[in-house]
Amino acid sequence: MITGDDVRRVAMALPRTEERIVRDRVTFRVGRIVYAAISPDETSMGFAFPKEERAVLIAAEPGKFHLPRPSDERYNWVRVWLGAIDGPEARELVEEAWRMVVPRRVAAAHFGEPGVTTSR
């Protein structure tokens, strides 16, 4: 089972990431934008994910993914049960969520992707 410490190791290795505690949740952010958060009981993780693709993801694997709490449904956000994913999948979810909040050039530099020069 993936733990909060496993998520922390991945997130804190990503440039510009800061860890903060917000309402008893460990959150990982770039600037003011949170891209991942661990529930207080460490059973689930919320992460940035395109809102328009959320329903398809949840429908494809309802035992793994679920909607965020109603107050967060307006955001690009979805949740995953940590017990339902392995290390490589946790890494992929956290890294892709991080990519949603950093400039493309930062992500490209971190992952060694050539040719990205936009300043988004």
In short:
This protein has 120 residues and is of the alpha+beta class. The chain contains four helices and six strands. The longest helix is centred in the last third of the chain and has 13 residues, at 87-99.
Q: Descriptors for this entry?
A:
6-stranded antiparallel β-sheet, alpha+beta, single chain, 4 helices, 120 residues, 25% strand
What does this structure look like?
With 120 residues, the chain is α+β, with helices and mostly antiparallel strands. 31% of the residues lie in helices and 25% in strands. The chain contains 4 helices and 6 strands. The chain has helices at residues 4-12, 54-60, 87-99, 104-111, and strands at residues 17-22, 25-30, 33-38, 44-48, 65-66, 77-81. The protein has a 6-stranded antiparallel β-sheet with strand order 1-2-3-4-6-5, covered by helices on one side.
